[in-house]
Amino acid sequence: MKEIHHWIDGQEHKGASGRFSDVFNPATGEVQARLSLATKAELDHAVERAAVAQVKWGATNPQRRARVMMEFVRLINRDMDKLAEVLSSEHGKTIPDAKGDVQRGLEVIEFCIGAPHLLKGEFTDSAGPGIDMYSMRQPLGVVAGITPFNFPAMIPLWKLGPALAAGNAMILKPSERDPSVPLMLAQLLQEAGLPDGVLQVVNGDKDSVDAILDNPVIQAVGFVGSTPIAQYIYERAAATGKRAQCFGGAKNHMIIMPDADLDQAADALVGAGYGAAGERCMAISVAVPVGEKTADALIERLIPRIEKLKVGPYTAGNDVDYGPVVTAAAKQNILRLVQSGIDQGAELVVDGRDFNLQGYENGFFVGPHLFDRVTPDMDIYKTEIFGPVLSTVRAGSYEEAIGLAMSHEYGNGTAIYTRDGDTARDFASRINIGMVGINVPIPVPLAYHTFGGWKKSGFGDLNQHGPDAFRFYTRTKTVTARWPSGIKEGGEFNFRAMD
Prior knowledge:
Layout: E1 2-4, E2 6-8, E3 11-13, E4 20-25, E5 30-36, H1 40-59, H2 62-78, H3 80-91, H4 95-112, H5 115-118, E6 123-128, E7 131-139, E8 142-146, H6 154-165, E9 169-173, H7 180-192, E10 199-201, H8 206-214, E11 218-224, H9 227-239, E12 243-247, E13 252-256, H10 262-274, E14 284-289, H11 292-307, H12 328-343, E15 347-350, E16 369-372, H13 379-382, E17 389-392, H14 398-407, E18 410-411, E19 413-417, H15 421-430, E20 435-438, E21 454-455, E22 458-459, H16 467-472, E23 474-482
Parallel strand pairs: 1-5, 8-9, 8-11, 9-10, 11-12, 13-14, 13-19, 14-17, 16-17, 19-20
Antiparallel strand pairs: 2-3, 4-5, 6-7, 7-23, 12-22, 15-16, 18-21
């Protein structure tokens, strides 16, 4: 049986805990590897070594750090197929979706090449008599990233790129369910020129998370996962004086106005609701058509599109629409919630409960489900299902529709489909949700903007990627300086290159 270990000080570290977690092939249900889980002592050792490596890395000028990011981009592009293959084998998503996972992380690394500009401070000449004042952005030291299973390339890259480019060392604890890609990324960073010890990949479970939160050397923690754990990490990190940005669950609504292009809206809903088997924090899981006529017409268009979806393993070709969910427990939870929707009175118009894929009977496949006439008191509306289930809540008016999204406890993403500019502008202005799409189903911002939800979808003051990431991973120092005026003799006549 293959064993997966840690990455410490630039090399594979086997670990000594004797504790392991199974890594499954979601398509077959078979265990394909065992993952070594770290002890608290092993994590503390990784932090200690990272703190030593960070001193020199933090003193390296930003342009040289950016050159490492530049080479890292080249290497990721070189190994794109290999990364996608491994990602698909452990997560279950299709190869095109896996490449998209890597690509959206790669775009943040491309943004980080601009770190020298982003780290510039401010300067005031002659703030007082002979006094200059300036600010510097300096790294925090050692920081940590705790990343989820659903984007095993993208989210680690979102965390490590800005942290390292800003001069920090990072302890990365990826998901136990699909840990191989983060380790591959660490190896590529070493090849790109990152000094040993600056990025440590430590695999573990809750024990490792708590060890990160309790370690006094770690100055900041970034997390993506479920809301209860996001809140737990945020509160515990804050209690120990750490910075924290913690992103949790979602229940993303898409409002479909009567004037919308319903074919376009239906296509968008199918992709946004069922892509990656619904295992996306930005998946659209609630469709809100405005008016009975709009709702009937939308359902009429959705049913044939959903029934034609091709579900299968990533090895079946690029025309597979989505693959299995990540674990057997995830599959059972999805089916439990589907049954609760039926029991509570929702109308199941596309029933995927009996889906069975010949030759993959033990895989974690879930057929697509579509509910109509869902109401806000139902569990399938209130709970993040994280599976291929779309709920339709009919609204009588625009105000009722926007009220549904605004009153939900989650505030990650939302979208509206309309041809009316006034409605779109009103929606974007009023909605209390962090990321908004107008005729865009999954409004994930590009790397040079910032990603983050509101309400119980996000905990912390600063978001992921974009300028916020560099603010999060640095602290500001302000200097007030007075020097005697006058010109000294002597000078250099040669232009010195940057060291």
